[in-house]
Write a structure and sequence with these properties.
The protein is α/β, with parallel strands linked by helices and 388 residues long. Helices cover 36% and strands 22% of the residues. The longest helix is centred in the N-terminal third of the chain and has 18 residues. The structure holds adenosine-5'-diphosphate (ADP) and magnesium ion.
């Protein structure tokens, strides 16, 4: 362990649980009063008490998975146990009132559905292939039949539109201050894309934007885009740990991070930055992706041009899984330049992107299943309480 992170406090862990959303009530389990308490002992063993609205809730498995995923990867945590209890009738009514209040109060705030898995693609520094990874994973997920949003939050350095071959202005919704994302069909799936590129007239005029303005632009993407139904939202982040990252984390506390690195970038340095980012934003790091892993020449010999082992070392350091390695391949940059992502075609890099997309769906960040218990319960409570 090369990064020394102090053992998290119960409050730190409770803050992390704000990222666990009850998909049907659309609020996080802390706010709903479902997360009752967190303890951590000297050995790093964590116990979380969760109160369910009803003991037989089919969402229990999902909540358990999400709670464990959020807590288990935190440095200093050695084990996670969940103690289940059931809410009293009074607590249930309070939770439902809260959910109902949020539904009214929050609806205008974000147009991103509560069941969408939000994934930010981040890195310690620029040029490691964040944007390439974002568009290729988006395409690979869409090819599996998912609806995937792509938010280009690298306001000053946008490259998503070029890489996806999209241009032209975004349309507004008639009579409303809403914008409609560009759509692109991929197999049975669909991409929904927004970028500053679609809102400014010249390719480089957003580059001059600074601080507050950049944040406003991202806020606009979260609040004013008519995203509609969406399984995943991938966010291409600007490099570093600045204002935009913090702002997004505040607006979307349930987001999870994927860290892109290269074998060359010192794992310890990236680990320190990633841990810093996770600590400041309370976002969970769901996995590490190593890009530009090795170059295979036409004769089939592999050359680790940028060294090797960086991804694995980083993953071990931050306690997150290494989801895959993408080889250095001219088809990746050529595909980016042509607006036809390599993941749509064949070859080792395309295969690597598809394999990572499968791991995301199967284990790292599975899509939200609508199990159907609390929403029905909410209806019953509504019916019992009459119009509020
Ligand atoms: N696996 C790869 N093989 C070859 N070229 C790559 C690969 N990944 C990224 N590139 C190229 O490297 C450059 C930087 O990638 P980009 O995705 O724009 O990085 P970032 O968004 O982190 O700044 C681009 O020209 C891109 O085409
Ligand atoms: Mg980029």
């Amino acid at each position: 362990m090369s990064t020394t992170v102090p053992r998290p406090t119960s409050d730190d862990l409770l803050a992390l649980l704000r990222g666990v959303i009850d998909p049907e009530l659309g609020s996080d389990i802390v706010e709903l009063g479902m997360a009752r308490g967190v303890t951590i002992d000297d050995d790093g063993a964590v116990e979380v008490t969760i109160a369910l609205t009803t003991a037989g809730c089919p969402l229990r498995a999902q909540i358990q998975k999400d709670v464990k995923a959020r807590i288990a990867g935190v440095p200093g945590v050695t084990s996670v146990r969940i103690a289940w209890t059931e809410m009293t009738q009074e607590q249930k009514s309070a939770a439902m009132a809260k959910a109902r209040w949020n539904a009214r109060d929050r609806a205008p705030d974000t147009e991103i559905p509560p069941t969408t898995r939000v994934v930010t693609i981040a890195s310690g520094k620029g040029g490691v292939g964040k944007s390439s990874v974002t568009v290729n994973l988006a395409v690979a997920l869409a090819a599996q039949g998912f609806t995937v949003g792509v938010m280009d939050a690298d306001i000053g350095g946008f490259s998503v539109p070029r890489m996806l071959g999209l241009g032209g202005r975004l349309a507004g919704v008639e009579g409303e201050k809403k914008i409609v994302p560009h759509e692109k069909q991929v197999g049975d799936g669909l991409l929904k894309v927004v970028s500053m590129r679609f809102l400014v007239d010249e390719e480089d005029s957003a580059v001059m934007w600074r601080g507050f303005m950049l944040n406003r632009a991202v806020q606009h993407f979260v609040e004013d885009v008519r995203w509609g139904a969406m399984d995943y939202l991938l966010i291409d982040m600007p490099p570093g740990t600045g204002d935009i990252q913090m702002g997004l984390a505040r607006m979307l506390p349930r987001a999870e991070m994927l860290i892109v690195t290269t074998p060359a970038v010192g794992a310890q340095k990236v680990a320190a930055r990633a841990a810093d980012m996770a600590r400041k934003t309370y976002l969970r790091i769901a996995g590490v992706i190593e890009n530009m892993s090795s170059f295979t020449c036409d004769h089939g010999t592999s050359y680790p041009l940028f060294g090797s082992g960086g991804g694995a070392a980083l993953a071990a350091d931050i306690g997150s899984p290494l989801l895959g390695q993408i080889p250095m391949e001219t088809a990746v940059s050529a595909g980016g330049d042509a607006g036809v992502p390599v993941a749509l075609g064949d070859g080792p890099a395309a295969e690597a992107f598809r394999a990572i997309a499968r791991r995301i769906v199967d284990e790292a960040i599975p899509p939200v299943d609508m199990a159907g218990c609390t929403a029905r319960l909410l209806e019953n409570v509504e019916a019992a309480l009459g119009p509020a």
